[in-house]
Design a protein that fits this description.
143 residues, mainly beta, 1 helix, 46% strand, globular
Length: 143
């Protein structure tokens, strides 16, 4: 297969976590990004914020400096580092943590709606819309 070079560049800087960011995912609509961190929080960010036109006017001439974003929403509930985050749909997010839990978040309700306890520290998560399954990877070498 052929690898094609993309014309990628930084358009936004998402600033708000107090510790290292460990995971992120773009929503199916591409209008939001979720991130997780060592600070044990997840944050929701807009990619189409209304004030973008005002921020563009603050860019330096040449327009190459990325726009600074602050989070739309911060959700707390994990007691340790968030290791994985994945959009389930445009309002629900699945997260994993080293606190041995999987959490389902509803961004419209702005809260955790379900917690599943696991017997091992979790390292990653994925979601399948087709099968409706959540897959996790853990530190005990089990998926």
């Amino acid at each position: 297969s052929t690898v094609t070079k993309c014309d990628c560049h930084v358009t936004h800087v998402l600033k708000g976590h107090s510790e290292t960011v460990t995971c992120c995912d773009v929503s199916p609509s591409t209008e939001q990004v979720v991130s997780g961190s060592w600070d044990s929080y997840i944050k929701i960010w807009s990619t189409t914020h209304d004030d973008e036109s005002q921020q563009k006017s603050k860019r330096k001439k040449g327009g190459s400096e990325p726009l600074l974003r602050t989070p739309l929403l911060t959700l707390g509930g994990h007691s340790q580092v968030v290791t994985g985050c994945k959009w389930r749909d445009n309002s629900q997010i699945v997260t994993t943590s080293q606190d041995m839990s999987v959490k389902l978040w509803d961004t419209q309700l702005m809260s955790c709606v379900q917690t599943i306890s696991i017997n091992s520290s979790l390292q990653c998560v994925d979601w399948s819309n087709k099968s409706q399954l959540i897959a996790t990877g853990s530190s005990d070498k089990i998926c």
